Amino acid sequence: MIKTFFKNTFIIIFIIIQFFCFQQVTGKQIIVKYKNSSLSHQIKSLKPNIYSQDFLFQNIISNLKKNDINQSFEIQNKLIDLSNYYILNISDKLDADSILNLLQNEESIESAELNQIFKVNQIDISNPNDEFFKEQWGIAAVNCKDAWKKASGKGILVGVIDTGIDYYHPDLVNQLWINNKEDLNKNGTFEPWHFTEIRKGISGDLNGIDDDENGFTDDVIGYDFVDQQNANIGDYLERDPIPYDEMGHGTLVSGVIAAQTNNKIGISGIAYNSKIVTLRAFDATGNAETDDIASAIIYAALNSIKVMNFSFGENLNSPLLYSAIKFANSLGCVMIGSKGNNGWALPHFPSDYPEVIAVGSSTPSNYRDIRSNYGSNLSLLAPGSNIFTTDVNSSYKFASGTSLASPFVSAAAAMLLELDSSLSPNDVKGILEVTAKDIYGTGWDEETGNGILDIGKAINNIVKTDISIFSPLNFSGFNKDSVNLFNVIGNVTVPLFESWKILLGKSANPKVWDTLTENNYQQTKNAVLTIINLENLLDTTYTLQLLVNLKNGKSIQKRLIFSVYSPNSDLEIKQISKNMIWKDGKLIPAISIYANYPITSNLFLVSNSDTTIYSINSHLSSTQTFLLKDGLSHFIGKAIIEAKRIDGKKIRKEIDLSFENQIAPTSSFNYLSTAFPSSFLLNQVSDIYTDKKPAIVVNDMPYNFWQSTKIYEYNEGNFDLKDSIDYSWIPVAVGKDNNGIPEILVKSSGKTVLFKPKSIGESPFSYISFQDTLNHNLWASGLLDINKDGQNEIIANSDSSFHIFSKINNEYKQIAFTPVDTNAVMIGTSPGFAFDDIDNDGIFELCHSNPNGNLFIYKFLNNNLILNYKDSLNYSNSSQNIVTSDIDNDGFKEVLILSYGSTSLYGIENEDNTVWSLRIYKKIEETYKIIHTEYFWDVKSGATSNGISFRNGIVAGDVDEDKVEEIIVSTFPNLYVFKWSNDIGKLNPIWYYPNAMSNSAVIYDFNQNGINELCFSSFNNTLIYEFDNNINSPSPPLNLDGWANNSSNIFLQWNTSNEAQYYEIFQVVESNGNYELIQRGRSDTTFFNYEAEVNKELMFVVTAYNENFSVPRSKYSNLAYIFTFPQIEPLNIIPVDNNSLLIEFSGKLPRKLIENSIFRFSINGEKITPYQVLFANDSSYLISFEHIIPKGEHKVDVLTFRDYYGNWSIEKMLNFIWDFPPNPKKEIYLSKINVISNYFLELEFSEDIESSTAINIENYTLKPNGKIEHISLIESNPKSVAIDLSQTEAIGALGKTYYLTAKDIISKEGIPITKGAGNTLSFIFSTNDLDNCFIYPNPIRYSEQNDIYFGNITKEAEIKIYDFEGKLLKKIYTKDQTGGVYWNGLDENNLELKPGIYIFNVTGFDKNNRKIESNLKKFAIIQ
Predict the structure, then answer these.
(1) Is the peptide bond before 1221 cis (omega within 30 degrees of 0)?
(2) C-alpha pair distances (Å), 668 with each of 664, 956, 1115
(3) What gap in Å lies between CA 687 and CA 881, rounded to an integer?
(4) How sure is the predictor about 21, in pLDDT bands with cuts at 50, 70 and 90?
(5) What percent of the residues of the chain are helix, what percent strand, and what percent coil, each to the nearest 5?
(6) Integer Cα distance of 1357 and 1379 in angstroms
(7) Closest to 34 measured CA to CA, from 98, 109, 114
(8) CA gap 248, 266 in Å, rounded
(9) Does residue 258 sit in helix, strand or coil?
(10) Burial 520-551 (b: 16+ CB within 10 A, else e)
(11) Confidence at 749, pLDDT banded by 50, 70, 90
């Protein structure tokens, strides 16, 4: 019955739909239904000659009967009922209402009704009902409402490469792209849990299977590409299909693009019908690795995502990233990048790559935001200041920056592609630049680019455009020794084309330009624009400018930066340093170089006559560091560095190299307990409550954000919360006055406070004993009795001075004021202070290191700080962490300083904050010298934009019960404990912990067992560890590693333990949630082989055994995970473009990119290493070469490497035939158009044209209006035709741009006209006087929704509208040079003018640039 009902209902609905689709309406119509099914219906009350009637559903019912002979009885009755409907066509001269009355009284008629006109319900998108729409000033600024009349981004996917998205946000949940093949429950939303799990009645979308076979498992809404190997905050370790936004940045960006509109909540998205593809490449801290970004771009390109938003960037030119961008561009992807927020004109990537649209930020006043970057590669501005948008946790907020401007342009690109999917990236870029609104005069400028985005104008002017320079590449270099000349090749095809020329200027942002070519008045495509003669140029950087002038007075620029080098401009490697650097608990070698020019470089290691390309550092920089990989445990031989400048000049340097890696022990401390949530620590323990229980003061940071200040007291193994204050005070020092009352010194945001209760027993936070009055620019540094008067002094600093306050007559007064060295930078707010008697002379010293790394040592003499020592060398450019300690036990304390941006690697200042150094100063012969430096790699520092603070620091204390202090170094995310060795004169590691997030550590014997505990913070908790002083067992094996070959053959290897007689190998087996060890054998070497079951995940540990120890078996080694899965191997090679290919493998590839040298190509007999290796998907690499791959048969040797599971791949050679791509077709294009009069044009092509196609009117279209009447050849010019336009349609100064497009035309050689940029030219009109200016329509009827415009005006004009009493209601200004301007009918307050009579006049400029003014003219608005 249900099935029959739906079938019958469908047929009836089908009939009605067919009627409304196909019924032709002429004159007046009345629909009648007769009472019976007689075939001869006559209407007695009407004469037959005044009407005609037709069976309403005759054809439809006849077709249904033919196609469905088995209709039910029910539907047959309904068809009979419908067959009684007829439509009466009645002359317009008759009164329909009178006839309707007659018919309603007709005996044979059951009903009669007029054939009414129905309209679809209009969605009023001009004023969305979203709750915060009024906060979105940017929507009006980019003319969205005009654009929304035609487009909303429907059907377009926008890839947002960012921090992810809040996919639960109510304004975004319906705006996500849903991959139908991966959407297992088929409900059109994303459920990020396993399909076997049911939550609120809904099963999950994840099944661990690549259902759409695109190389990515479960990519329902996109993918999370973050796979960092170093411990970090949040989701950082594995790539996965759950791209949740832990920071908020990606959610902010996505809301601007596509927040759901007209849903009565939140905000309106610009391209509200587009879909967001979430491509998470940035972690919870807002940082991303280059390969993760590149992988996201390649995913988008291979999955037909045509718009990508890049709201990120750095001043770093990465060839890896650029290779991914060029690949995406070759597949037609439009990429938009934020220009950055430094307020400078320096290069910024990826926005400055020519394939990317570079977007700056504008303010509500339509000016460039002062924080927005600018310069040669800026395309345009978009709103980026105080943008109200979506935020994580289903919230909203205001945010600013070019990151918010870029998505405006991404949304615009989506809307353009919705209307014309054939637009190329250059087309989209050209349309947006040409239609942008000028700010500082007409044309491009380095402050604002081409102006502010105007989506409405762009949507109404979609014509293919290409203004580009594609040879040479941006940032190229040329050496006069090998190149004298080079061609500049590009395209100039833009509909409003007037002329173009080439200019040249010195520097990256020239102020003075030399003209290289005169104005050229013909478009050009794939042509030499000019030839640059290098002999006339100096050794410097130049900027080449392609200036294109348009018919509307606007100009577009494309700039290319290149460098020139003379033969005597020597490339030098000015410094090579060899250092051992700590990375993830391993001391591994690093080779750092500093060159006199930016370079790319290769490193070759030569040992036993075996030369191997070890690594390629392909980013362009004058400083480079090669960090040798973990697998190379020792080496003796030579290292060869090959440096290459951008002009191709190379230099090689050879150095001797020998090293042996060191591994920090991980088992020398035992875990005791968790103390309290993760906190900012102070290494001071005090009996604050005088109850003989140790207490510590911390700043609570359980979620990595500053929160309240707390006091914890140790009580029988637990830390009890005793007191807190709801403010983010940073604890600086804890002490007691001479009456035993506790004192707590804190600081925050330039404020210093000393808390001190009035009596013992009260809360330590109950009373403020000291508070600064120096305008919130006083930072607490220390609390100690520096003048030895029996009470503590407060030591603090302002930006440029030290201050000491002492309590005199119950009031704190400043007793010392010491300005810093006049040649030094400001002190800053870093923790670069230590107070101690370091030279053991009974006088306190203040040790200070400023942000440059300069060391200053002051002595406190005569109630003042006197400078005693100064090291003026700059070692870094960062905050400094400083501690004093007698690490060598000689009775004198050393000064230890930890900071990043070390100059030691390169010999120059370098801001690389991933390399940290620990410098140790010792007093030697009345001065201080650096006796040792330790380095740390890949350390995160500072704070993220969303307020998460990375915590790094240094502290000293005795943790191993030998009465000599050890050094604890916290370099996020690692923590090391070092002990000074007098034998070797350096620090030696005694412990390493891999997941710390601690600014310091607390060192104290809380449990009173004679050994100080080590208390430090991890990501979530503060942990307590204690040194294991049991030395009665051999040291454990380190660096256990393992893999499986041939699925089941397991191999284990580890580092030698000098105390082992042999080694025992154990498999760790889980059983019912418990783990047990099963011994699988023993080995006298550091290698073990074992046969295991296939397709299993196994775990192993190894111990050292020596019967001469009282405990013969050591602690266990680290855990090795081994997967007995089949070894992967290369399978296929697939061409992608003319210098890129995909290599497919049989299984999952490793998380991190492998060395380029794994792939050894033989192309035409020449051995070639790829330029870039990029991750395409789980089982494919995208390989790119610097040059085009020649046609022919080639081969590649794919060497072995470790796959995703750590197993070695199968080495294999692949042969492939390269026949890609076909030679590009030659095309003709339109070169120029001449307007002879309003109705006569001359059109010129790039080649001599074939006459029959050239004069065929069907091969031309004219928009927005106009009709071609005749086309003829111009005998004097075989490239041109004359076009006569019909004068029946108005063409002229009407505020319109007219577009003439040609198609299906061929040259005399048979070459077709292009279908892309170059097939359209446009023209405009304006007047030289204002005598005949007008407004149309007049009168204006709002109900008819006609466009309102003023016409017959000058190129630049201002229109003023008044009411009849002379009150100014509206000013409209235009400089579009189209002879007219459109008006929305609103006054200056955006209110619709009421019906009535109004007056306007126009002022402008004639052809002699004299100001002219029209007479007052009237127009009417009627209801």
Answers:
(1) yes
(2) 10, 18, 9
(3) 27
(4) very low
(5) 10, 40, 45
(6) 9
(7) 109
(8) 16
(9) helix
(10) beebbbbeebbebebeebeeebbbbbbbbbbb
(11) confident
Q: If 0-12 CB within 10 Å is exposed, 13-18 middle and 19+ buried, where does residue 660 land?
A: exposed
Rg over alpha carbons for the chain, rounded to the nearest Å, is 39
Helix (H, G, I), strand (E, B) or coil at 405: helix
Q: Are 948 and 961 in contact (CB under 8 A)?
A: no
Q: Which two tokens stand for residue 1390?
A: 């955006």
Which amino acid is residue 12, in one-letter code?
Answer: I
CA angle 1414, 1416, 1420 (to 5 degrees): 125
DSSP state of 752: E
Tokens 């989701």 -> residue:
235
Q: Please give the average per-residue pLDDT across 1368-1382, as a whole number.
A: 93
List Cα–Cα distances, 807 to 767, 813, 835, in angstroms. Answer: 16, 6, 19
Tell the residue number behind the tokens 């042996």, with chain if given.
660
Given a cut of 60, whether residue 68 has pLDDT beyond it is no
Q: What is the DSSP letter of 681?
A: -
CA neighbor of 181 nearest in space, from 217, 212, 213: 212
Torsion angles phi and psi, residue 930, rounded to 5: -80, 120
Q: Which amino acid is at 1000?
A: S
Residue 1168 structure tokens? 């070639």
Query: If you ran DSSP here, which 8-state letter would residue 1344 be given?
Result: G
Nearest CA to 616 out of 1183, 1171, 1182, 1185 is that of 1171
Which letter, b or e, does each residue of 309-327 get, where b requires 16 or more Cβ atoms within 10 Å of its Cβ? bbbbbeeebbbbbbbbbbb
Helix axes 425-435, 402-419, angle to 10 degrees: 110
Closest Cα partner for 16 from 114, 85, 108? 85
Q: Return phi, psi of residue 107, to 5°.
A: -65, -35
pLDDT of 19 higher than 90: no
pTM of the model: 0.84
Alpha-carbon gap, residue 166 to 392, rounded angstroms: 5
Q: Are 31 and 112 in contact (CB under 8 A)?
A: yes
Query: What are the pLDDT digits (tens) for 878-905?
Result: 788 999 999 999 999 999 999 887 666 6
User: Is-contact 980 887, C-beta < 8 A?
Assistant: yes
- First vs last C-alpha separation in the chain: 54
Q: What pLDDT does 902 receive? A: 62
Residue 988 has pLDDT above 60, yes or no: yes
Question: Which of 371, 372, 332, 325 minimizes the C-alpha distance to 349?
Answer: 325
Side chain identity at 574, as an amino acid letter?
A: K
Q: What are phi and psi of 402, to 5 degrees?
A: -65, -20
- Residue 1022's CB is within 10 A of a number of other CB atoms, namely 25
